[in-house]
């Protein structure tokens, strides 16, 4: 028989619960924070000719549509 003291039985599941909760909290915090960082240096382009939507991180005022090759302006997202 394994000798386990009562504080260990009580505190280990509690510590594991706290760890899981804090990991989930951290995961959601990163998920919530990430899109702001990503959209900050990405531009969304919507093709006026074919309606194709594409994203590019380069700071280009005009970018060619990968589908029909017509030039389009970046859509303002903010
Ligand atoms: Zn197009």
- Return the string of H and E elements: HEEEE
- What's the overall geometry? rod-shaped
Mean pLDDT: 85
Biggest pleated sheet: 4 strands, antiparallel
Bound molecules: zinc ion
Give a brief description.
The protein is built from one helix and four strands; from the N terminus they run H-E-E-E-E. It is of the alpha+beta class and 78 residues long. The protein folds into two domains: 40 residues; 37 residues, no CATH class.
Can you lay out the helices and strands and say which pair or pack?
Layout: H1 6-40, E1 43-46, E2 53-56, E3 62-64, E4 71-75
Antiparallel strand pairs: 1-2, 1-4, 3-4
Bound molecules: zinc ion (ZN).
Key structural traits:
78 residues, 2 domains, 21% strand, 4 strands, alpha+beta, binds zinc ion
Characterise this structure:
The protein has one helix spanning 6-40; strands at residues 43-46, 53-56, 62-64, 71-75. By secondary structure, the chain is an alpha+beta fold. It has two domains: 1-40; 42-78, no CATH class. It has a four-stranded antiparallel sheet, with no helix packed on it. It starts with 5 loop residues before the first helix and ends with a strand. The mean pLDDT is 85. Zinc ion (ZN) binds at residues 47, 49-50, 52, 65, 67-68, 70. The site of zinc ion (ZN) has 8 residues, from loops.
